[in-house]
């Protein structure tokens, strides 16, 4: 009975606002609210009249309605009081808590607690107003929706819903109170089109929002063509987090060196949102395998990193048989280029911190492993050809509010060709940044203008231990004895750790930087004096004595030594401008020449002098022909020795730049001026050492860089020898340089590099002028020759051209000239919005061959990607074809055909 009273009040409210009989008239907009209250009330809202919409507020008593139901309709609302049903026509909308429902027609049944939404035919008979159901972050679009707001269950017909990156097209869907839904006759796809390019056809599907989608027996359909690819069940994760565990399906291929293979198959472990491990492996039909563990980790605002470990069992039966039989391997097959069977490993670790003021930062870059691992398991040409790798791990911190900082570091380097490995462990440093002397010995910056206020001081000390697994051919590289010892290699293993540590070179290097300030001389010259001092503490010091009986040099060793060196110098520089103005009205307004000359002087004593004690002149034997005594200066330390010889050198350089000011015309700004660079920089430099007894003038170096036609960068450098040569190619103390004849010296080497970067914008002018109407047809002679060389087809493209020339000349009886020329090209071409081609190639003009070439073709297939790669020449020649689903959810849905790892395909 209460429901009848409520509907009567609703009818009365409607009659007051419009007319007693207009409650079902189309064309009027209605809105209503059903709210749960203990006492029913009727509210009148004048504001609804201003908005052109009547409002109805119904307040039923306690019942099955959990919260307020708000509804509206564009055309009309009809009420069946006896049946407790409300009909909403035209753009009907209902809001019930976090649930929203929109459709052409909605029915509210208070008796059964259901909402029903469907489409309606328009005047042409076309169904319009597709129901859209939204609850929280989920949205469903269907032809018919039935929803029970009490049980929170629903039935949806012909629905398309999105779960994660996937879309589910279902004939019928039932939804329960846990937001799980069950679909009948389904299509699961990552294609967002109404008619998808491909889908997984499954009779039954269960979807758990933000978790996973489970399917019964299914098969793959591509282009509406069913395929036999499928399985008894399927599981597709749809988590909110970016990481999820799952199987990694391998790709397959073939190459001549290792046969058929399955590559990169395994499992991904998503430990949490911040860390995941990818465990994969490769297996080859000719024997061998490789296992990789790759872990990514990140901590927001703190650090991120990656750790990769690879273990390989490489098989080469051809090389093994040749070694067992004691014969040389043939060179007519690919196995001859590879090493024998072996087990290798490689580790890569990168760790990057987020720098925060006042906090220390730990960083790592490790790239190390077995000597031949990179050669037999390489992934790129650069990786295969790289002869050396380096690693370092460090912790660095700057003391807040002070100039002090310290670093703790360990580093390693290895040469994969020679097998040499060097370690610096530990590597400790402490430094003080440059501060003024007055500030250093006071509580703050100086407020006076004393002459010493410009003096600055910086300091750094580095203590390290350098260990190598290979000793040089001589017992010590800087101690030449008459009978050098053979090279010695120390294997890297735990049993040799003590031996490696004892063979290390331990030292501490102190460096002082003393700044004496900058001064103006005669207003236009800058004068900067400098003083440098460094001191090295070493773990060993040697004393030499020639033993005439054994004809060898005996060495006595002490446990500590000290070496120091110092130098002083000064620099004088200025800038000179020169401008030439032209008459008004011309294209060129002015040309400016900028000259920056600089002169420096440096002095360093001869640290081989006996008073320093760093070198010892010792008898090392007698000349067998003349029986004369042979003496030599022997360094008394293994490392850190200063250079020998007195140096009193004057060096100079002149930098030049030329630019032009030209007049340009613009439709918007009228006449304006523009600066054009003619020469970016032209530099000439050399030096003169007063302390030498001959050949005091240093080689003359010339360099030039500029830009031609606004898109060609040119770089040129050359070294000129200013002295004459004898018949053996040695310099003699006679100048070849002759300024009166325009000779600066003989060209010893030179290099030229031209680089051009072209795009469609390169050829476009600033204004697009419309062609005159009276131009004759370009197809008629002789106007055909007027066709432009460049036609803009509105196709985005890039083209980079590179030309390199290197010239080297040697003098003497066997003097020769070596010229190396190469031409390179690379770029991209977007043929259409869906097709893209990239290419690069290098041609060696000197040897007349193509050094490297690569072509990549990309095709956008909407929800698929296709790529074709081809390397036609060189060690890495081969091809690959890949077609894969674009979505990361279906990344293993792909087809790959590959002839890789370079060898003959």
Automatic annotation (TrEMBL):
Residues 1-24 form the signal peptide. Keywords: Signal. It comes from the Bacteria. InterPro entries: LptD, LptD_2. This is LPS-assembly protein LptD central domain-containing protein. Residues 213-723 form the LPS-assembly protein LptD central domain. It comes from Pontibacter chinhatensis. GO terms for cellular component: cell outer membrane; transporter complex.
